[in-house]
TrEMBL record, chains A, B:
Species name: Agarivorans albus MKT 106
Presence of keyword NAD: yes
Catalytic activity: L-histidinol + 2 NAD(+) + H2O = L-histidine + 2 NADH + 3 H(+)
Gene designation per UniProt: hisD
Role this protein plays: Catalyzes the sequential NAD-dependent oxidations of L-histidinol to L-histidinaldehyde and then to L-histidine.
Annotated substrate binding sites: 234, 256, 259, 324, 357, 411, 416
Protein name from the UniProt record: Histidinol dehydrogenase
Gene3D superfamilies, A to Z: 1.20.5.1300, Nitrogenase molybdenum iron protein domain (3.40.50.1980)
């Protein structure tokens, strides 16, 4: 990775260093996805079966996976894997249970009670990508908060053939139905429903450019479904001082780089020697990885930034707003109050990103691509919605009318005023 | 309004009765808005000045309203209005202060600390529509939670000429900058910034079809800005039993109907006599309204639904998912546990919708058009974002590695495993 000295750059160059690679969102993809969405809306299950043959090279006898097949998935799995999933599940449950919101009830003035209530979203759809390796961790991160929130129906779709790790984890987490559908067609099926697929109110989960585009399209249609958050390539920013272990720093950078050639990896360090040492470790460790080709491509557009001090390091991090922020400094927690834009923060030398990816208890579904400025780490609240309640006494209404009536008059809305004054006998 | 008997309808007819009028989202509007957005991005303030002359018939000397002009706005306003705004502001502050979230910190297992932190969104832009009457209540509902959340910079845009009620309320609520810009051009200016307009990370507020389309467009561009929620025409559903006062029910239906010809108004009642009595009251009260032409148009596509009992009334309401739900029954609070989809609920005969529109303390920015299934009433949390933090001890990492390593292996991600095992001395 290239090394730059922050203070030697002008502000335009600084922004350039922190710019993200352009995401492929060609009109080609939009058109292909629009066609797939139409096909699924018109033909339902038949479209899913046809598209599985075409894109997944799979002959489906049914879109929905039978409970028998789901339960049989456990057989081929090791005890070690099952215990790992159980441990991760327990931690994720503890942290997401703690996020369950408390209702609010108070009087803003005598006789005027205001409340905030929460209700689970009724039907949610979870998407779990396929590809070179199964992602049981994605099942954990989506299904556990859905169940804790209290969603009535939780369904999951993943491209066929679905790995036993996915089926096992889905069953363990109480997913109600599993569908063998991938890509844009899975998103369309859950957004609109088919003969076999239950319509979801909101769709969650990562995916490739087609999945992302399909989520955008169905969320823009009020007959479709809401979605969790905009998606972008995964990324990490590591803040390291001169005391950090360069082998640990390099290992963290590589664990992000191996995700994909478009992963972005940034080191911000107070020490030019540290940047050099990390670069040497990257070269050494890269050779040991089975996905070293992917990681190497990601590193080719990544940068080490040398800053004056840790305050400047946090400024750079806030400007970038990383999905994952790893802080490997002597007093890592001291930087926390200044952190504004990040998806998930990993403090100290014993906290690699992969603990959050799988098992610490935090959610690994995070805003990326700069969306940390406005979007939140996925949590139990994303599977719920808030609504307010108010209840006034007769005297409360009388007292509040002194505020309501003049504002209604200023806004020229007679009936707004009259709904109050008629009740109080002041107008007929 | 027409009256239907719910049990006499088949399920298709039931859905038809609850269907919302189609929203005009023609490609014409999308094209016009795209042109305006481009013009503002390219020409900045000049575009805003040109478009104010074209659409608002106003010659602007500057886009930003001077502090002097803002402070002068108070002079023409009545004490009654100012006291009303002060009372509303105090109530809204109490309820939105109570929504400030508490961070979470716990150990999911020994040595594995997980935390949820909250940070304010840095820069927010508020849009306040112009039109026939000024809307100071919209200023209250957007600026107060922004300030309570702790946003660094709060800016507001409204079409010129801006009414003194808006300027006064904006100043009272601590808005930092006010711009004389309306429509799609105001949204574009706040999303991308101009010489005079400060770029916002997230844009809030209601508007017409052009504003709504502009919000959609800028929120789809990662260089643009996030938005509060999708918009649709305003709507109310009133549940009334046979004991409800038909004059009160009619007043509430009219206070929604006067918003616009596309407002939707639904009465759900257990009593056919009640439906008839409300219809008579509607006719009587309609004649007294200055906006009776608008209200009459809204009522022409509205319906009274007669149901078997209150349980069925709540089912109908949940199916519709109204923005505003008014419950005028003897034991209104008893229905609350069954309510799933609603933006804001008004309990009992002394709680008209207009108290929530202005002054009870709840926010009047609510999901509509069926979005109550997945979206929340606007609150302090919408001006903040959550991020997670984790911090492990060396022993915590060792204990957690039993979960992380098998899952990383199942997912085929070597570097994810190695970030753990290298720290523990188990791999080099």
């Amino acid at each position: 990775m290239q090394t730059v000295i922050w203070k030697q750059l002008n502000s335009e160059q600084q922004l350039q260093v922190l710019s993200r690679p352009a995401v492929n969102s060609s009109t080609d993809i939009a058109g292909i996805v629009a066609d797939v969405v139409s096909q699924v809306r018109e033909q339902g299950d038949k479209a899913l079966i046809d598209l599985a043959a075409k894109f997944d090279n799979t002959e489906l006898s049914a879109v929905r996976i039978s409970q028998q097949e789901i339960e049989a998935a456990e057989q081929g799995l090791s005890e070690e894997f099952k215990q790992a999933v159980a441990q991760a599940k327990a931690n994720i449950e503890v942290f997401h249970q703690a996020q369950k919101p408390q209702p609010i009830s108070l009087e803003t003035q005598p006789g005027v009670r205001c409340e905030m209530h929460y209700a689970a979203i009724g039907n949610v759809g979870l998407y779990v990508p396929g590809g070179t390796a199964p992602l049981p961790s994605t099942v954990l991160m989506l299904a556990i908060p859905a169940r804790i929130a209290g969603c009535k129906k939780v369904v999951l779709s993943s491209p066929p053939p679905i790995a036993p790790e996915i089926l096992y984890t889905a069953n363990l987490c109480g997913v109600d139905e599993v569908y063998a559908a991938g890509g844009a067609q899975a998103i369309a099926a859950m957004a609109y429903g088919t003969e076999s697929v239950s319509k979801a109110d909101k769709i969650f989960g990562p995916g490739n450019a087609f999945v992302t585009q399909a989520k955008q399209q169905v969320s823009g249609d009020h007959a479709g479904a809401a979605i969790d958050m905009p998606a972008g390539p995964s990324e990490v920013l590591v803040i390291a001082d001169d005391k950090a272990n360069p082998a640990f720093v390099a290992a963290d950078l590589l664990s992000q780089a191996e995700h994909g050639p478009d992963s972005q990896v940034i080191l911000v360090t107070t020490s030019e020697q540290q940047a050099e040492a990390v670069n040497q470790e990257l070269a050494r460790q890269l050779a040991l990885l089975s996905r070293n080709n992917i990681a190497d491509q990601a590193l080719s557009h990544s940068t080490a930034i040398v800053v004056n001090d840790l305050a400047q390091a946090v400024q750079v991090s806030n400007l970038y707003g990383p999905e994952h922020l790893i802080v490997q400094t002597e007093q890592a927690r001291d930087l926390l109050p200044e952190i504004e834009n990040a998806g998930s923060v990993f403090l100290g030398e014993w906290t690699p990103e992969s603990v959050g990816d799988y098992a610490s208890g935090t959610n690994h579904t995070l805003p990326t691509y700069g969306y940390t400025r406005t979007y939140s780490s996925l949590g139990t609240l994303d599977f719920m919605k808030r609504f307010t309640v108010q209840e006034l006494s007769q005297q409360g209404l009388k007292d509040l009318s002194r505020a309501v009536v003049p504002i209604a008059n200023a806004e020229g809305l007679d009936a707004h005023r009259r709904a109050v004054t008629l009740r109080l006998g002041e107008e007929q």
